[in-house]
Amino acid sequence: MNLILFGPPAAGKGTQAKRLVDGRGMVQLSTGDMLRAAIASGSELGQRVSGIMQRGELVSDEIVIELIESRLPEAEAAGGAIFDGFPRTLAQAQALDVMLKGRGSQIDKVVRLKVDDEALLQRVAGRFAESGRPDDNPESFKVRLAAYNEQTAPLLPYYENQGKLVEVDGMGSIEAVAGAIDGALK
Fold it and tell me: InterPro entries this protein is in (predicted)?
């Protein structure tokens, strides 16, 4: 099973993806984690994306697709992938469909975590205070949230028209959201 966890930054996608990895053995393909790992490695790719992420801008489709494609064999061996933070644009969604079709696979479900923007801002401010992660500062978050609302939210009709979209209230406790996701995947 391949699924996409869909929602704005800080909606809880990473938390729920980790739970699904532990419970189902799937591979989490988190573009944010992959990009942060590239930055930490000091690689050429990491140096290229570091400034982009610190400004809250979106990394190019080409770079993100390259990262995802490199991890697909691992996900296939595990029985499925959880896409977290990808796709962000219609071009990425279409590229993912083509990539998976070429491998005899597809996206099975898209789980949208519905959340409140103001609550997310408070969540990020708290997370930034704890971690100091540069891409979690409230100002960068506002840029990322605006980019999500402008570029990524329009993907909802794309997946809805394919009959793959399910919506889950993302404002509940971690356990309540997890239960709703499990119900949506049955």
Answer: Adenylat/UMP-CMP_kin, Adenylat_kinase_CS, P-loop_NTPase
Q: Is 58 annotated as a binding residue?
A: yes
**Pick from 9, 20, 10: which is nearest to 109 by CA?**
20
Residue 136 per-residue DSSP state:
G
Q: Is 13 annotated as a binding residue?
A: yes
Give the residue from 13, 36, 17 showing the smallest Cα distance to 26.
Answer: 17
The reply, when asked if residue 128 is annotated as ligand binding, is no
Per the annotation, does 133 bind a ligand? Answer: yes
12 labelled as ligand-binding? yes
CA 137 to each of CA 2, 15, 46: distance values in angstroms, whole numbers, following the listed order: 31, 19, 19
Which domains are delineated in the chain?
3-185 (3.40.50.300)
Q: How many of the other CB atoms lie within 10 Å of CB of 154?
A: 12
Per the confidence metrics, is the pTM higher than 0.90?
no
Which tens digits make up the pLDDT trace of 100-138?
999 999 999 999 999 998 988 888 888 888 887 766 778
19 is in an annotated binding site: no
Please report the sign of the dihedral spanned by the C-alpha atoms of residue 32, residue 33, residue 35, residue 40. Answer: positive
Annotation-wise, does 125 bind a ligand? no
* Residue 167 assigned to a binding site: no
Per-residue pLDDT of 32-91, as tens digits, reads 888 888 889 988 888 888 888 888 787 888 888 888 888 899 999 999 999 987 898 888
- State whether residue 163 is helix, strand or coil: coil
